[in-house]
Specification:
Blueprint (H helix, E strand, L loop, with lengths): L2 E14 L3 E8 L3 E7 L8 H4 L6 E7 L5 E10 L2 H5 L2 H17 L8 H15 L5 H15 L38 H5 L25 E4 L4 E4 L8 E3 L1 H12 L2 H4 L6 H15 L4 H4 L3
Parallel strand pairs: 3-5
Antiparallel strand pairs: 1-2, 1-4, 2-3, 4-5, 6-7, 6-8
Helix pairs in contact: 3-4, 3-5, 4-5, 5-7, 5-9, 7-9
This protein binds zinc ion.
The site of zinc ion has 9 residues, from strand 7.
């Protein structure tokens, strides 16, 4: 059987027969793969321990006719241990791997950006770099943005009026044009963005005149709407909720750290993910 080497993160596992498992991994060079790990349930095998969810491993994989087979796995980073020791981190990690699994299709091979974002998020969880629910919510928004579903959160999607006066753009200063997704690709690809830590900075920007009578977010329309233009399905949001949603999407930890995730912001992240993934995130539902 032809062999290939790659590194990957375990997204989920399923039992196969008496002693085997099917492992679903996101790999750097081969996209999402499913491969059999033989004998991993028979004993307390070290091989099997490297193929548990959230583990990042160097793999040697044999290409089979129907299913690939993992023939070697060497641990690159044992994110699983610190994550599984902390219930909140564990819950957040489940949201992250489920999102990655649903977002990346089996035929996609150019997933390096998604892969880096995934290891950035798991690394941050393992190191307790930020609040776990912030890390998972930010991961969800950034992974969807990277896939082409970035919310437009700087101006009304209908009339184009910017939502805040004084040129407020958030601490990260992301999104100068407010049109092409509000986020820079380079930031997504940097794992460091997940592990910088900041002291809290309360931000209370003033809404611009078009938004004085309310700010709205329409998930199907892809972003912010002013009071004049909002459609019936749009949700009314406060400036604080909007600032937090922008910070999650930008990976702006200066704004996020030390401020709890607002319930409405968390719901909007869930709605955004469910709409654009075209199915609910089971692991996120458990948080309600
Ligand atoms: Zn408008």
């Amino acid at each position: 059987m032809p062999l290939y080497r790659d590194e990957g993160v375990v997204l989920r596992t399923a039992k196969l027969g008496e002693a085997d498992r099917i492992i679903t991994l996101l790999t750097l060079g081969h996209g999402k793969i499913r491969a059999v790990a033989k004998g991993v349930r028979r004993t307390k095998s070290r091989f099997g321990a490297r193929l548990e969810p959230f583990m990042r491993a160097d793999l040697l994989v044999a290409q089979g006719r129907s299913l690939d087979v993992v023939s070697q796995a060497e641990s690159v980073a044992a994110y699983a241990e610190p994550i599984c020791a902390d219930y909140e981190a564990y819950t957040a990690a489940n949201v992250i791997v489920e999102t990655a699994d649903k977002l990346v299709g089996p035929e996609e091979s150019r997933v390096a950006g998604q892969y880096r974002l995934l290891i950035g998020a798991l690394n941050a969880l393992a190191k307790h770099a930020h609040a776990p629910d912030h890390i998972s919510a930010s991961y969800v928004m950034r992974a969807l943005a990277l896939a082409g579903w970035a919310p437009r959160l700087h101006a009304c999607v209908v009339c184009g009026q910017r939502c805040f006066t004084d040129g407020f753009t958030g601490a990260a200063g992301g999104g100068s044009n407010g049109r092409s997704g509000d986020v820079g690709t380079a930031e997504f690809q940097s794992a460091q963005r997940f592990t910088q830590r900041f002291t809290p900075q309360p931000v209370v920007p003033q809404p611009a005149p078009a938004f004085a009578n309310g700010m709205y977010l329409s998930v199907p329309s892809g972003g912010l709407m002013c009071a004049n233009d909002h459609t019936p399905e749009a949700t009314r949001i406060t400036a604080a909720e909007l600032v937090q949603l922008r910070a999650l999407t930008d990976g702006d930890w200066r704004t996020l750290d030390g401020n709890g995730l607002l319930p409405q912001t968390a719901h909007l992240v869930e709605d955004w993910a469910e709409y654009y993934l075209e199915r609910p995130l089971r692991s996120m539902r458990l948080l309600d």
